[in-house]
Fold each of these.
Amino acid sequence: MNLSRTWAIAKKEFFHIYRDPRSLGLVILMPALLMLLFGYAVTLDVKKVSMAVLDRDRSQGSLNFIQRFSASPYFNLRYSVQSEKEIKRLIDQGEVKMGLVLPWDFSKTIKAEKIVPIQVLIDGADANTANIILGYAQAIARQYTQEKTILKVSRMGVTNLNLPVDVRPRVWFNEDLESKNYFVPGLVAVIISIIGVLLTGQVIVREWEKGTMELLISTPVRKGELMIGKLFPYFFLGLLDLSLAVLMGKWVFQVPLRGSIALLFALSCIYIFVALALGLTISIFARTQLLANQMAMVIGFLPTFLLSGFTFVIANMPIWLQIITYGVAPRYYVTILKDVFLKGVGFSFLWRETLVLIVIAAAGLAVAVKSFKKELR
Amino acid sequence: MLVTAFRIYRVSSIKYQASRLHILLRQMMTAFVVEVKDLVKKFDSFVAVDHIHFQVERGEIFGFLGPNGAGKSTTIRMLCGLLLPTSGKGKVAGFDIMMEPEKIKQAIGYMSQRFSLYDDLTVIENLHFFGGIYGLSGSLQKEKEKEVLEMIGLQELQDRITRTLDVGSKQRLALGCAILHEPSILFLDEPTSGVDPISRRSFWSLIQQMGEKGVTTFVTTHYMDEAEYCGRLALIYQGRVIALGTPSELKQETLSQGVLEVDCDPLMHALDLLQKERWVSESAVFGDGLHVIGKEGVDLEWEVKALFQKHEILLKRMGWIRASLEDVFVSLIEKEGKQ
């Protein structure tokens, strides 16, 4: 390995990046855009569910029940309607996610100490959200029932009624249960995957397409020197994006970074190599830049997005898909990111993931160097 | 040769110089810098290069002349270690083209047919890159860059982005990048295609300068006038070398009796008539006249006069001229086609 040759290649790649405003724009803007999108726009939190109410009773009792919804931060009472038809229309139009129907004898039945059925209509198109809404509605109804029961029992003369179980939940790691705390750490993996695989996916195939490779392979440059030299600048771009993402996460979105920053960067460097090696391999096999781009999206980006545990919890996947995720490098990196960011764990908890990433990076580079031929094709 | 070796040994950058010395020593042991025997290259069933055989001496400008698709580029690529031959033997700079292609690469400079420098880099950045790739560094590299820039006449343009250069300057820069590391052999694949005549001439004077320094040049071309600059020529057609020699030898051997230039009216009618005659081996329009080549032992002047008289064609002027390489080339290919 000749360092001056490697350095010559690296310098040349720096010039390419520096003179190509598009790739520079991609490096700076794409991470910022993704961060803003996932930090602000994409949220799994269900709040202010818009709802319509059909109150057939119009009594003090029914009003009191409805108020419990409208006073809750989780619901937003937008329409008071006169018929079930209207509720159907509003749900169809997407105006409301939930409709509540109280029967004409709501108060009367309660007073008569009988069970009163109320109807809750939920837009189930988004199953996850529907489930959460259902949970909220049930909780409100349950509390209402509980209060009514206690009232009734105390009227009967029992003064100190104790309910046997009192749940006092305490959520760890993401105390406020905020989506951004869940998304931002994983997003770092997505950003590095995109930048690493997409940009390095071009480095070899571009030289073939432009015809410069013919001259390059007529020189005594070695394959290893060519690969390392080409990856060098992109490694720095990866570090740049990593810093950008961490800074934005910490200062713009106030995501807690509880673990050591040094550990985060050290382990991230390994993952940058994984992404670069994958991009390089794609670049060697792809015959056109367009194909390389598409391969980078399918092989590099999609698994990071779908199978790494970034958005979808791996434990909830069918077993065969869970097995596949073990072969997906970002899975290990997302685990590292979430653990360091939110749990603040040390290396002693993460050495397995680290080891797997090192093996994948080394194997990827070996495959890249092996499959590159210094011969015209 | 020994003087060069010594001079090179003196200067800095030990590792680089050691590799240069190794190459020089290897070359001193062989008589020919390029030696090819029964070289074959097949692409599937298509035979691109068909058992070719030739040698190139040190310091020679060796031309590879042939139409497009004749196998010129394929041959040059095999010699540069870019393509593995299907069979046959070959040595370049004393290294085997089958076994040691990577060693060949340090000893040669190559200019591919398609412009293949980095067009988003400046002139000096391109030179610097190729210098670095060939293991140059430090003050030696600076010195060489300056020398080469001067030689190719691009000092003023050294900070220009390569994309913005004219074709002639681009080609000179490509040559500059190929000679920076003082290769002993230069392989130039159609170096002047698409270049205007004046730039072409200055390009060839650079190649001749290199030749005076003892650099061997192996050049492919399909420009006949350029072929005249070559010390020796191989005519390649359909993957085979059909003639080899100095330009004057080729003219002498194939068209010893010369070419009859005929000025007449009507031109195309005369051409039709001539092409039907048995005693004409070849006839073609050149400028506003005809070039006629006769078969062996034919009194061409007499025959033409008789033919024109018979068909009432006005003979304005007639005279013998020396055959050009183009005449030689066309007649050789016609002969080849008939076989």
Amino acid sequence: MALVARNLRREISTQPGDSRVVFTNVSFSVAPGQVLCVVGPSGGGKSTLLRCVAGLDELSAGNVALGELTPHALGLPAWRASVCYVAQSRWAFPSSPADTWAEVTQLRAQKAREHCHGDPVAVACSVGLDAALFSSQWATLSGGQAQRAALSIAVALRPEVLLLDEPTSACDPASTALVEDALLRCGAAVVWVTHDAAQPQRLGATLLTLPALSREVTSV
Amino acid sequence: MGPKAIALPELAAGGALLLLTFVGASQLLSLGLERAVCVAAVRATLQLSALGYILVPVFRLNNPWIVLLYITFMATVAALEAVGRPPYRYAGMLRHVLLVVTCVAFFVAAFALFVVVRVGLDAHYAIPVVGMLLGNTSSSVAVTLGAITGAIKDSREAIEVRLAMGATRWEALKATVQNALVLGLTPTLNQMRIMGLVSIPGMMTGQILGGTQPATAARYQLVILFMIATSAVMSSTGVAALVLSACTDAEHRLHAQRLVKVQKRKESDLLLNLVQAVYAGAKGAAAGAKRWWHRMTAASSPAGAALLDQGVNPEDEEESLSDVEDVEHVEWGSRER
């Protein structure tokens, strides 16, 4: 099912009575197997856009749907199990990626789609991450390794949509190529935030540019 | 027959020994605690003496209403104590803690005084018993609050990863809550475990000094101990649930930004806090009454109905008025809507 977003808008109140528009009038649709690259200057609201699509932040206006299914119709946990957001920051768990996989697959929303789950170690190997590393502590992994471990977990959960916030920012070119290849083959609709100018072309992706809104202040 | 009375010069001798040793050690080792120990000793003397005088009429009148009033006062102080310690707070935290501490204190005290000891609201029993309950409840609430709010702030990113993978807010925060509750309840359990091995506990000491048989005193101590543990578990669990409802919403989002760091307050602010709490309670009650009145009249009066039709909530205006705390206002139960 395709992810469809219509007229998304996000405002945050800076102080009582005033608010700042982070992004407005954003519409897009991504079909399974396709990649949409979100580009634009830092602070343009790219991460916030992904968080809003995942339902981790509230949308001020607009709506998202997976085919006909809205987050509210599915329930937010089930929505997030299908529309999986991988943040840019390092996963700070006091355990190993294998433990995290075990924990995540026990979540009620994930158990409901257990039949979809793949093998995270196989995915990890395909992006150049050693199986042994998958069982070592998160804290001992390098930035690029931790990034690929988190990505392996998200991909192996086989969501319909992957929302990825700079998933290769800490990877070297060889690992980046492996990650790009794995994500193109995973079958999910991918929304990919990137600062790498050549990446959209390599991925054959559609482009969505978020302009830097000039700290627009509106009175409510 | 009561214990031997302590004359003022005798009390002064005790105080002098404390000050001598403490100031001596502080000077010797440059601890810088001279001023603190003097302030603490003077405060304790003034507070306990005042308590002695306040309790005279309360005990003499022995009126259930006055006892209830006094218990409410103690519960408020206990809630303020508990709220003052954790490093983070959120709008409405004082109200949450007041609610939990008061409800738990009244419930457990009622059980102790009407079911276990069966003396009713006799001031001689009720006030010391509730005082001990509240003292312990206050510290377990403070530890639980500190542990939960601190853990939510520290493990915010891990919690959000769980949410992003499809966790419900309970699934995402379960480990945090479990750790905080274990931390909050462990001192109470330890206290129960070593009871009577190392020292004779305070209340039992008091009763023995007052001429009670040690066996009777031991049973009283046990009742108190069981009630303390009961109120610790009830209040910690209650506070944990309220913190969760304040930091998350029905859409399973985490609002860690609602927890704000407290600037360290001076101890003397307790009095100020007390005044503020009474003020908050009174305003809250007034706003509640007003809201109820609006609800009753809005349905029938054309003006109210018109307001509702326009989507204007007549409650909104009062909400801003009733907001005594300096951060964003949180209304009861509004998280679940």
